[in-house]
Amino acid sequence: MSEPTLRQRKQNLAKTSSSGSTTKSPSRSPVRKASSFGPGFYVVCCLVLSAVVFLYPNPATELLQTWLGADWGASLPGGGADSVDLTADVAKRDAVVAAFKHAWLAYERDAMGDDEYHPISHKGSNLTEAGGIGYTVVDSIDTMLIMGLDEEYQRAREWIKTKMTLDRDANFNTFETTIRVLGGLLSAYHLSSEDPLFLERATDLADRLLTTFETPSGLPLSNVNLAIPEGRADSNSPGLVSTAEVATLQLEFRDLTMVTDEDMYWRKAEKVMAVIKAATMPPGLAPIYMNYEQGRFVPSAIRLGSRGDSYYEYLLKQFLQTNRTEPIYRQMYENAMTAIHNHLIQKSTTAGLTYTSELIPERTQEGELAWRLTPKQDHLVCFLGGSLMLGAVTAGAVVDKVSIPPSPNQLLEQGIRDWSTGVELIKTCMATHDTATGLAPEIVHFRIPSDGLSEFMAPTDWYIKGARKGAPASYDARYILRPETVESLFIAFRLTGDRRYRDWGWNIFQSIEKHCKIASGGYASVINVDEVPVTHEDKMETFLMSETFKYLYLLFADSSVIPLTQYVFNTEAHPLPIFNPTIRTGFS
Ligand SMILES: *[C@@H]1O[C@H](CO)[C@@H](O)[C@H](O)[C@H]1NC(C)=O
Ligand SMILES: *[C@@H]1O[C@H](CO)[C@@H](O)[C@H](O)[C@H]1NC(C)=O
């Protein structure tokens, strides 16, 4: 496959960089007015969303036609199942294994046991001064099991056995510790034929994490002091927890209940879902912050990016983990996806790229609540393409087992809708790789008529805000080794057998090799995807080894490796087995 063509983009956008945080100064974009903050928030929310929809026509009505007339050709309907080849591409798969080893061996040489790794200075660091908790080792170990790296696995296991301790007198993020460390331990437990070491460590960690759930609402606090242990509120946002953080613990805690036969973990995690369900009003979208005293949403951004993303991801995955036996999760998932289609999915002006926008609440000068539709899409949102396709062939299917690829008559109407949107969103995410490095930026903005930019400043459908030649790179311009696009490519390939997903994944992998690889070992983030030669940031995020290289490996591996019919991946790419639950969900 050829390298992506370079956009002839002028990089002189006279705009300030966005920081990725939720607060934005008011802009000239259309602002919808409504009444003030307060108990009527949800009524306001609904009214305003309706107004927004009026301005941005709902694309869902066109989707069936898109499907039938799309460039899917022979792979739909009645197409291609016999010619689908889901066997390994051995050479590419093995190239990914070599890359993983290049990352791991450098970490092991320079920083074994430290939480994080800095490949340029050849140093490790810990999340807190109280000492490491095995963040990188535990996050990486199931990838070794999947790749068959037995020697590396044995050394990592030995470290967990002899060196790992959770007696660290400092605050750790509840969500990050759950998805990376608890998820990693549970996945290692399952993939190692139930090595009791991993279960013992997982139970120890989960028991400490349980202290965060001691709030009036049952929503867990953002942090935990692991040594005491005790839940701790986040002093940066008093009284609040983020929606994705409280709603992305359920796969892990439920799995622990299944393996220990101890109900408590399940109940605590599920209470959160009941609180969210009770707090959610039509049209089914969830703002990114909740109040943990009352268990209510507070006016805050609505988006599929940071602090929102994995809430939606886990709605589907909770339905899948329980072997599709819990209609409540299917219903919550379907409501959310319909709301996303009605309110957040947009099409770009020239190339017609499908993307998701954000809704940002603002106060007008009169102190009234107003919502601003912002055409900003985080790289994080790129999980959604694959997730929608997976949802379409499960929650959105009329049969238990769809063909590969599925045909429209196997899917419900919303399954067809979600599948089509998923396919389109992946294309959009690939379009954001059209940069000087072939790597996608952290955040992209799409052109809208009211953005005040000229054709000269941003000739394409999307741009990196704040990017300017000669100026320091904007926050948005970085690539920090994120996995979300290759995660979607892996799922799309497994569900279609369409080779182009492997081709796209290979292109991304080659860009990582070319621009992120450090000769002396490890991989580093790039601070501007549109500049070659690149400037590195001295950091190798742990999700490179737990997610990015794992999903790339699985993209090129035989489809019998971690089949999607038997496993769900937690949001850190740790596979957990699907099971038939013996406990029923206690809310409706
Ligand atoms: C991280 O914590 C571990 C355990 O306390 C310690 O041995 C190691 O030196 C720490 N690493 C750094 C870079 O401080
Ligand atoms: C999931 O349910 C199906 C029946 O719908 C059953 O055949 C399968 O064995 C179940 N899977 C597990 C892991 O229990």
Automatic annotation (TrEMBL):
Domain of life the protein comes from: Eukaryota
Segments passing through the bilayer: 37-56
Single GO cellular component term: membrane
Compositionally biased intervals (Low complexity): 15-29
Keywords, in A-Z order: Calcium, Disulfide bond, Glycosidase, Hydrolase, Membrane, Metal-binding, Transmembrane, Transmembrane helix
Keyword flag Transmembrane: yes
Catalytic activity: N(4)-(alpha-D-Man-(1->2)-alpha-D-Man-(1->2)-alpha-D-Man-(1->3)-[alpha-D-Man-(1->2)-alpha-D-Man-(1->3)-[alpha-D-Man-(1->2)-alpha-D-Man-(1->6)]-alpha-D-Man-(1->6)]-beta-D-Man-(1->4)-beta-D-GlcNAc-(1->4)-beta-D-GlcNAc)-L-asparaginyl-[protein] (N-glucan mannose isomer 9A1,2,3B1,2,3) + 4 H2O = N(4)-(alpha-D-Man-(1->3)-[alpha-D-Man-(1->3)-[alpha-D-Man-(1->6)]-alpha-D-Man-(1->6)]-beta-D-Man-(1->4)-beta-D-GlcNAc-(1->4)-beta-D-GlcNAc)-L-asparaginyl-[protein] (N-glucan mannose isomer 5A1,2) + 4 beta-D-mannose; N(4)-(alpha-D-Man-(1->2)-alpha-D-Man-(1->2)-alpha-D-Man-(1->3)-[alpha-D-Man-(1->3)-[alpha-D-Man-(1->2)-alpha-D-Man-(1->6)]-alpha-D-Man-(1->6)]-beta-D-Man-(1->4)-beta-D-GlcNAc-(1->4)-beta-D-GlcNAc)-L-asparaginyl-[protein] (N-glucan mannose isomer 8A1,2,3B1,3) + 3 H2O = N(4)-(alpha-D-Man-(1->3)-[alpha-D-Man-(1->3)-[alpha-D-Man-(1->6)]-alpha-D-Man-(1->6)]-beta-D-Man-(1->4)-beta-D-GlcNAc-(1->4)-beta-D-GlcNAc)-L-asparaginyl-[protein] (N-glucan mannose isomer 5A1,2) + 3 beta-D-mannose
GO aspect biological process, one term: ERAD pathway
A GO MF label: calcium ion binding
Active site as annotated: 176, 309, 442, 484
Cofactor(s) it depends on: Ca(2+)
EC number: 3.2.1.-
Record-listed Ca(2+) binding positions: 571
SUPFAM superfamilies: Seven-hairpin glycosidases (SSF48225)
Pathway this chain belongs to: Protein modification; protein glycosylation
Disulfide bonds: 382-429
Disordered, as annotated region: 1-31
PANTHER family in the record: ENDOPLASMIC RETICULUM MANNOSYL-OLIGOSACCHARIDE 1,2-ALPHA-MANNOSIDASE, MANNOSYL-OLIGOSACCHARIDE ALPHA-1,2-MANNOSIDASE-RELATED
Similarity comment: Belongs to the glycosyl hydrolase 47 family.
Name the record gives this protein: alpha-1,2-Mannosidase
Organism: Jaapia argillacea MUCL 33604
